[in-house]
Amino acid sequence: MDPCSFVRIIVGNLAVRFPRSPSSSSSSSSSSGPSVSDVSSGNCYCKIKFKSFPRQIVSVPVLLRTESESESRCCSGNVSTVAACFSLSKSQIETSLKKAKWSVLSVEVYSRRSASCGFVAASGEKLIGRFQVTLDLKVAESKTCLAHNGWVDLGTKSKNNKKSGSDPELHVSVRVEPDPRFVFQFDGEPECSPQVFQVQGNAKQAVFTCKFGFRNSGDRNLSLSLSSVTSGKEQFSKERKGWSITIHDLSGSPVAMASMVTPFVPSPGSNRVSRSSPGAWLILRPDGYTWKPWVRLQAWREPGVSDVLGYRFELYKDGIAVAVSASSSISTKLGGSFIIDGSTSTTTTASWSSSEGSFDLSSWSSIRSSRTDSGSGSDFRFSLSQAQQNLGFVMSTRVQGVEKQSKPKVEVGVKHVTCTEDAAAHVALAAAVDLSMDACRLFSQKLRNELRQPSRVDIV
Known about the structure:
Blueprint: E1 6-18, H1 22-25, E2 44-50, E3 56-59, E4 62-64, E5 73-74, E6 82-89, H2 90-96, E7 104-114, E8 120-134, H3 137-140, E9 145-153, E10 169-178, E11 181-186, E12 195-200, E13 203-214, E14 243-248, E15 254-262, E16 279-287, E17 290-301, E18 308-317, E19 320-327, E20 330-331, E21 336-341, E22 378-383, E23 393-399, E24 409-413, H4 420-439
Parallel strand pairs: 1-4, 21-22
Antiparallel strand pairs: 1-6, 1-10, 2-3, 2-7, 4-5, 7-8, 9-10, 11-12, 11-24, 12-13, 13-14, 14-15, 15-16, 16-17, 17-18, 18-19, 18-20, 19-22, 21-23, 23-24
InterPro entries: DUF1005
Region (Disordered): 19-40, 346-366
Protein name: Formin-like protein
């Protein structure tokens, strides 16, 4: 089956330009809006809105221009950045096409005046101007469209009567591009060893099977030395350890694995896994007769909050773990989205997928030639390093709260899937994220039977 159609809206290169220098603006700042002296890069910001998506707020640099200057002078900040991204599925695209106003992107520019002591007054927010552009989402399903790139006036005067350069201006780039994704759906909870389907619209096709179990000392297939990635922590009487889930293709061959390499144990005197001593998973890929680490995922319970999980994420490149910065967290009660997404603003090259070879998963081999739910809960988003930021969208998975049945849905960018193992590795990562919700449950709470360690198995 073919990948699902997605469209990605990218807003970037934001800057605000004022017509007067600070020394000449004081006499006329009271009538038409804030003067340059009232605004700095820290107090000028944009609210970016599209349809029903949560608005994104970003600070923007301020540029100054005097009558004697032919070019603007940048006071601070970097205008070559991605400010906001919105991803739309096929159904969201079709909904947006029903009414013209549902395809309109809005960028509102605000300033905030600060009091002399540095505090912001309650009524200090002031709208400088608004920029709107209608996006051709239908065309963007098949080719990249540059909806706008350049300066736009933010003033309210008639274009025929105003003097050129007399109003504030906004610089903005808006690009809409196809962002096809493979979508996978677990047919049950990962600990129940479900099938995994590829989904395309209303059609679905089985592509993987999962096998949940407890890794033991006699497991010869896991030839990777786990001692190099475990923390060597003291063994506690209460611990959750040795979980693993192996992803098989339809021929029965293992193509990815998520293995718990550091036990999830409560910190001394508490019932929770702490940030200072997290549990950890390795996501492994087959490499001949051994397993090769691809990703390390650590998880813990955030301090002071009973239902919030934190994660730390590392990507292995040539056997070396590369840290990836993270923000936000996932609610264990409400669930949320786990997202790996990089900016598309750089020109550096990097490869997220480490494998080579043909992609023989059903009829998908043709691609070799070539956003998530918004419900309650938290989105957990990773920011990739500078060398990896051209990757764009990599993957996302939606997990439910621990008291709800969770059948993770996984989206993977097409350009990050070149073979069966690529797809399977992302599915294994999604399973590890979901299982971490249970692994980080308070130790005063009982796990379901499928997750409880058999008493006679020697678990390492």
